[in-house]
Amino acid sequence: MLREEESEYWYQKLESFAESAKGGQKREALSRLVYLDIALPHRGSTDMLEIMKKVPALLFDKGIGLPEFSATSNCPSTMNGGKDFCHWSKNDRKLAASMGKLLEKVLGRYGKGLVKVALGESLYEKGEDTYEVLTLLTRGQMEAESGGMLEIVFAAVGMQVRLNTLYGEMQTAKAILNSFETKVLEERATQLLPNINALRCRLALREGDGQAVKRWLDEAPDENREFCILERYRYLTKVRCYLFTGEYFKAEALLEKLRYYAEKCSRIYIQMEVNLLCAMVKQRMGGEWKEEFFSALKEACSYHFLRIISEEGTAVRELLEAAGKTCLEKELSDKKWLSRLQAETGKAAVRYPLYLKSRFVNAPDFSKTALTVLRLQAEGKSVNQIAAELSMKAETVKYHIKENYRKLGVSGKANAVLAARELGIL
């Protein structure tokens, strides 16, 4: 709940108790203090490796046990799960090799598979070798399934969903997620269901499925009634839903709450995400957006992250085009990274043209004939069949089709039909 002062008050009470306690009570108090050093959100993750180095002496020399806790906060991520490990990502391979065994030993069951999944996620964010990423995620998942925790499996599954989505394998991504949800229900791990549904909503957003988005919004947490940082993955999903539905004031208000949390708790990854989404909102509202956009780009570039930006596809491409080549090259010194970002963003925009795309289309903009042509297309009829049914030339039908695509902001029949249904004109 971001009540840092109250949290520290009780931490100090526990610390004082540990100094005077003896035997089992002292061990239990020290165990809880170690847990809080790792888990308290406002303590960040900068000193986490130093904390981890000290823990084994307590655990193994003094016989103190560490309480089990989720390293992921039930999110489909390890690098940006319970803690933010952006700084870790800069030396990911080296740290995985040198600190991996220690981390797994300290975290016990929650450590099984964690290092491989985290390394796979780090390499994915940087756009490195896909085969290596998939190998790490798969092996990490299998380790977690062999005596580990389902939360780590979810992180591996979430990354596999992102990977398949990136390459346009939407049906495979859905199948992976559905299979994992079945396992979660069988094992009654209900704490994972809210974020599973949020991930499914993100897939619906990519497809432009407005009905699925609206259904998810009915179950989404209400940030105005209570703001809890454990809901951050769902809040960030909700921001994207607001962008999709054009509710920009709601999106901006929620983003400011997330920004407060990210700054207070040193969540660098979320700061990048918030800045990027804020730039989208402000650009669509006609406000000043470039400062936040370039802040997100520069931060991502400093870690060599691509996917946090490029996965936003059409929405980011609009910002890149609006910023202009000259301005981009002036602001970003790493031209190779910028070139890769533009290429990947372009591919994502082509694969998912309806994802978060601004829409300014209303039903009155379409003539009765144009809507009839669109309806007949939706029924699967060809240009010649439509021309025969409406007693017009094929060239006239083609003209209406071209204009319909232009007004809907799409490039093909399937996307035109989907966009028209989302707008309620079919």
Mean pLDDT: 90
Number of helices: 23
Structure summary, number of beta strands = 0
**CATH homologous superfamily placement of the domain at 363-422:** Winged helix-like DNA-binding domain superfamily/Winged helix DNA-binding domain
Structure class: mainly alpha
- CATH topology grouping of the domain at 363-422: Arc Repressor Mutant, subunit A
CATH top level of the domain at 363-422?
Mainly Alpha
Give a verbal description of the structure.
This protein is mainly alpha-helical. It has a domain at 363-422: Winged helix-like DNA-binding domain superfamily/Winged helix DNA-binding domain (Arc Repressor Mutant, subunit A, Orthogonal Bundle), CATH 1.10.10.10. It has 23 helices and no strands. It has helices at 4-20, 23-39, 48-61, 86-89, 92-107, 114-125, 130-145, 150-166, 170-186, 193-207, 210-219, 232-245, 248-264, 268-285, 290-302, 307-310, 313-323, 325-331, 335-351, 368-378, 383-390, 394-408, 413-422. Helix 20 crosses helix 23. 39% of the residues are buried.
List the helices and strands and how they pair.
Blueprint: H1 4-20, H2 23-39, H3 48-61, H4 86-89, H5 92-107, H6 114-125, H7 130-145, H8 150-166, H9 170-186, H10 193-207, H11 210-219, H12 232-245, H13 248-264, H14 268-285, H15 290-302, H16 307-310, H17 313-323, H18 325-331, H19 335-351, H20 368-378, H21 383-390, H22 394-408, H23 413-422
Helix pairs in contact: 1-2, 2-3, 3-5, 5-6, 6-7, 6-8, 7-8, 8-9, 9-10, 10-11, 10-12, 11-12, 12-13, 12-14, 13-14, 14-15, 17-19, 20-22, 20-23, 21-22
